[in-house]
Design brief:
Elements lengths: L5 E11 L6 E8 L9 H7 L5 E13 L4 E11 L7 E2 L5 H8 L11 H15 L9 E6 L2 E6 L6 E5 L6 H9 L9 E5 L4 E5 L3 E2 L3 H14 L4 H4 L2 E2 L2 H11 L2 H5 L12 H9 L1 H12 L6 E3 L8 E4 L2 E4 L6 E3 L17 H12 L8 H24 L17 H5 L4
Parallel strand pairs: 1-4, 12-16
Antiparallel strand pairs: 1-2, 2-5, 3-4, 6-7, 7-8, 8-10, 9-10, 11-14, 13-16, 14-15
Helix pairs in contact: 5-11, 7-10, 7-12, 10-12
């Protein structure tokens, strides 16, 4: 069993009253994750501070010391209903305090969104005779989504909010909810505001073979829905057209805001570009394959599936597109590092057997090998042309695509 990570994070809470210019500071030391906003309100409450999250203003990793403790410093804006009580903002945090006073474009970074979202949530729960039994628990609060776990009289439900550039998730999730295991049960939705209220559907994770088998069945069982989903085209032809951008200096250096720590070295960039003929050949074979374009997930990994008894359910369709179905089917994203290759192969074949009416298994295996290369391009583009130019603070996502491109290095 993997040992749990031991953390020590200096957590600065920059307390702001809605409509007020005054900012106060409370500094805590916590041993729980806080990057996504999880555990921040609980830590604040334990220190006698009530409020709701604004934005994460800073997160700096300091690495793991000789004592095995991973240390970091994090700063969160916390809106408080009363004049903020705390110490004056220290000089080293003044710039962050100024940022906290600056109006935000991301809706849930503003002072009024939380109350409006809570009112919508409570109205929808009341209409279903499922009132809350406690405060929502923040699971994620960042630029691309908000996710709460909400205790109710009839079990936990999940509230999710997405920005305009991910509005497709609401439409796609609602359409897929009628297909077993294609999406969580939808209790309520507001397409205009990007809000979803979802019922629970099991525990996060699943057997890789079962997950990929379910993915194939969802991709096949939802073909009749495709005309109404208005999905973005992200098939092999589109990927071919994006290779120049993905392999450019701008992409591989990701240095718009200064040198990026994950930038490829000149030798790495040359090695990746040398693989371009192989990548192009794989994309051409996928384009010419007997497997049609269909619903693509774009970010399938172990955290985006749940399992209840024998039912696997796929979550988080924010990157949904019309693409080659094999691009999603990488078993490595569903398994921990070091998984036995036989387990990976079994998961691959569980997926491919759902397509053997279109081609022999050996042919499908060769196409799948092509898709494992092209799939990294597909996932990289989920950041490069799906998030990086759309978010308010581009620095957080500037090099996110590089992780996938590095997986293509020989």
């Amino acid at each position: 069993m993997t040992e749990p990570v031991r953390r020590e994070t200096t957590l600065h809470l920059l307390l702001t009253r809605p409509g007020g210019a005054e900012v106060a500071c409370r500094t805590l030391t916590v041993d729980t994750p806080v990057y996504y906003g999880e555990h921040v309100l609980e830590a604040a409450r334990a220190a006698g501070v009530e409020g709701w999250l604004g934005r994460r203003l800073d997160f700096t990793r300091h690495g793991t010391g000789g004592d095995g403790v991973t240390r970091a410093t994090c700063a969160w804006q916390l809106f408080t209903p009363d004049p903020p009580e705390g110490a004056p903002v220290p000089e080293e945090l003044r710039e962050l305090a100024d940022a906290a006073r600056t109006p935000a474009r991301t809706p849930w970074f503003g002072p009024d969104w939380h109350a409006a979202a809570l009112a919508w949530l409570d109205d929808e729960l009341a209409a279903q005779d499922r009132p809350r039994t406690g405060a929502p628990v923040v699971l994620k609060h960042w630029q691309i989504s908000v996710l709460w776990r909400v205790p109710t009289r009839r079990g936990d439900v999940y509230f999710k909010a997405v920005p305009d550039f991910f509005a497709r998730e609401v439409t796609v999730t609602c359409a897929l909810a009628g297909v077993p295991g294609a999406a969580p049960p939808v209790l309520a939705a507001d397409t205009r505001r990007g809000l979803l209220l979802l019922d629970g559907c099991g525990e996060v994770g699943g057997d890789p073979a079962a997950v990929l088998r379910q993915l194939a069945r969802v991709q096949r069982d939802t073909r009749h829905l495709l005309p109404g989903l208005n999905l973005r085209p992200r098939g092999p032809t589109y990927l071919l057209g994006q290779l120049d951008a993905l392999l450019s200096d701008k992409s591989l250096h990701a240095d718009e805001h200064g040198p990026h720590p994950d930038a490829l070295t000149p030798d790495e960039a040359a090695a990746l570009r040398a693989r371009r003929p192989q990548l192009e050949a794989a994309l051409h074979r996928l384009h010419g394959s007997p497997v049609p374009l269909t619903l693509g997930h774009g970010d399938l990994h172990g955290g985006n599936v749940t399992t209840h008894e024998d039912q696997v359910t796929i979550l988080d369709w924010s990157d949904a597109s019309l693409t080659h179905p094999f691009l999603d089917a990488n078993p490595a994203y569903l398994c921990p590092d070091g998984t036995d290759p036989a387990t990976l192969d079994a998961a691959r074949d569980a997926f491919l057997r759902e397509w053997t009416d279109l081609a022999p298994l050996d042919t499908l295996r060769a196409l799948h090998a092509d898709a494992m290369l092209a799939g990294e391009l597909h996932r990289a583009l989920g950041y490069a042309d799906g998030i990086q130019d759309a978010v308010e603070d581009r620095r957080e996502w500037a090099g996110a695509h590089l992780w996938h491109l590095r997986r293509l290095l020989p």
